[in-house]
Amino acid sequence: MTRDELAAHLDYMRELGVQGVSRAAEWRARVEAPRLAEGLPPGETDDMPSDDALAAMPADATPPPAVALAPAEALAALRQAIGPDCTRCKLHTLGRRQVVFGVGNPQARLMFVGEAPGEDEDKQGEPFVGRAGQLLTKIIEAIGMTREQVYIANVIKCRPPGNRNPEPDEVGTCEPFLFEQLGIIQPRIVVALGKFAAQSLLRTTEPITKLRGRVFEWRGASLIPTFHPAYLLRNPPAKREVWEDMKKVRELLQA
Ligand code: SF4
């Protein structure tokens, strides 16, 4: 990037209301908002000026000190950038009612990630609000926390038709938004709910029965796979194993 290009880039950022530059996830979310609004995936910000480039800038192009967005603001900016009527993947043509962004504490230490919105979630615009969601709320309360203290999201944000599994192109398009949310919230622990979320996040085909009971280091957090609450509704005895996983979560939170 030339000096002129760098100055133009910074002018562009200032027009967007970005105060200064930072490598923080919150800043990246704000910077990437226009990219997302234009239908581009978040990805790496290769055009972000390097530290050397910043040091070489002329004095009159020096930006004011970086002002990092608070996580709540950064999440709101990301939500706005995705938009209420996202059309980036084919799910927008397959009957979804709305984008289900995610809900909870923007600074949560514990985050739950499921597969995709179901019918109730699609209607209400919030993840895990149906019967499985009510069970998830009980699971959260079982370790002495409330739903408001954690953050809940899905690998993809629109309901697949007939609750089928998300397809690779849908995951590939939508998953970067989840990674942006993770980068903003920076949870200490991520619980992957069910086979699909666990396999998708860990890029593995190992069965959930082999993944659960283990702790993975993943994107700066400890990732704990466990059974999906919908599976527990069909197989109540599996609650015992989920309780073991949640005790591990509690232990790690207290460490
Ligand atoms: S699933 Fe994600 S990428 Fe696809 S339309 Fe919904 S929000 Fe957009």
Query: Which series of helices and strands comes N to C?
Result: HHHHEEHHEHEHHEEHH
- Looking at the overall shape, the CATH architecture of the largest domain is 3-Layer(aba) Sandwich
Report the mean per-residue pLDDT as an integer: 83
Poorly predicted runs of 5 or more residues: 1-35, 43-49, 57-65
Shape estimate:
globular
What small molecules does the structure contain? iron/sulfur cluster
Distance between the termini: 45 Å
Tell me the total number of β-strands: 6
Main pleated-sheet profile: 6 strands, mixed
Strand order of the largest sheet: 1-3-2-4-6-5
Protein model, in words:
The chain is built from 11 helices and 6 strands. It starts with a helix and ends with a helix. A hairpin with a 2-residue loop joins strand 5 (216-218) and strand 6. It has 2 domains: 3-72, no CATH class; 86-254, Uracil-DNA Glycosylase, subunit E (3-Layer(aba) Sandwich), CATH 3.40.470. Residues 1-35, 43-49 and 57-65 have low confidence and may be disordered. The protein has helices at 3-15, 25-37, 51-55, 71-82, 119-124, 131-142, 168-185, 194-202, 208-211, 229-234, 239-254; strands spanning 103-104, 110-114, 151-154, 189-193, 216-218, 221-226. 45% of the residues lie in helices and 10% in strands. It has a 6-stranded mixed sheet with strand order 1-3-2-4-6-5, sandwiched between helices. The chain is an alpha/beta fold. The radius of gyration is 20 Å and the shape is globular. Helix 2 (25-37) runs parallel beside helix 4 and helix 4 (71-82) packs antiparallel against helix 7. The structure holds iron/sulfur cluster. Iron/sulfur cluster is lined by residues 82, 86, 88-89, 91-92, 99, 156-158, 170, 173-174. Iron/sulfur cluster binds next to helix 7.
